[in-house]
Amino acid sequence: MFSLGNLKRFNFGISLTIRYFAGSKSSKLKLEYRDISREYYPAVLKHLTHNFFVNEPLMLTMAPTLKCSEFMAYADKDTLDMLGENFSVMAVNGNNEIAGVAINHKVSSGDFQDARDQLHTINDENYRKLLKLLYDYTLEANIFECFQIDEYFELHMLSVDGKFRGEGIGKHLINDSENMAKKHGFKLMKSDATGAFSQKLFKSAGFEVVHEVLYNEYVDSNNKPIFPVAPPHTKLQLVCKCLD
């Protein structure tokens, strides 16, 4: 097994899919938005396990095998690495229950290529094929050259608990993440919208599509989709917003 420390947080590359899961809509919900501090790390991992990884469109294509693989060990380690950068934000209710999170981190020029070069060292097949898609499509976008930058702020994962749907949490977390990026002097904010809902949300927040991959065109040697994502999700979009 390769050292996760060497690749840092670039192993698990899905930046975002926001999903509103089954659950009753709350009314007059009072939420507090704050930075994610260390004491919340275990609760954040639990939230992602029960809300993001079991419902995200790409993950659903691998669901039957995820429980018996190393996938979650990789993902949890990468999430903790990103949380340690202190760029991530969350929403909590009056009972201190996490309603939603935005996991953010910095990406520097060369990071994805370095990680791409080490894909062969990853033992988990699902993790490896997911990263190959994400790395290749990100490198194709050539973000650093196109925007003439050396680093950017990435909203890596956005997750909202279904019990709190309809409260505008996703929109608020994107806005808070953007403010975090500006506070730290980033000129560009980027994310990967893997589903129809997140794509609509980012468009409304002023993000533009820089690159995309249609799931039914990303195929194996037998011309079968590697990720047979179910409708209404049809494509992976790389979205960016200039912060100047």
UniProtKB/TrEMBL annotation:
Keywords: Acyltransferase, Transferase
Domain N-acetyltransferase: 87-225
Keyword Transcription annotated: no
Cross-referenced CDD domains: NAT_SF (cd04301)
MF terms (GO), sorted A to Z: aralkylamine N-acetyltransferase activity
EC number: 2.3.1.87
Metabolic or biological pathway: Aromatic compound metabolism; melatonin biosynthesis; melatonin from serotonin: step 1/2
InterPro entries: Acyl_CoA_acyltransferase, GNAT_dom
Enzyme class: transferase
Catalyzed reactions: dopamine + hexadecanoyl-CoA = N-hexadecanoyl-dopamine + CoA + H(+); serotonin + octadecanoyl-CoA = N-octadecanoyl-serotonin + CoA + H(+); dopamine + acetyl-CoA = N-acetyldopamine + CoA + H(+); serotonin + (5Z,8Z,11Z,14Z)-eicosatetraenoyl-CoA = N-[(5Z,8Z,11Z,14Z)-eicosatetraenoyl]-serotonin + CoA + H(+)
PANTHER family listed in its UniProt record: ARYLALKYLAMINE N-ACETYLTRANSFERASE-LIKE 7, ISOFORM A (PTHR20905:SF32), N-ACETYLTRANSFERASE-RELATED (PTHR20905)
Family under the similarity heading: Belongs to the acetyltransferase family. AANAT subfamily.
UniProt name for this protein: aralkylamine N-acetyltransferase
Species per Swiss-Prot/TrEMBL record: Glossina austeni (Savannah tsetse fly)
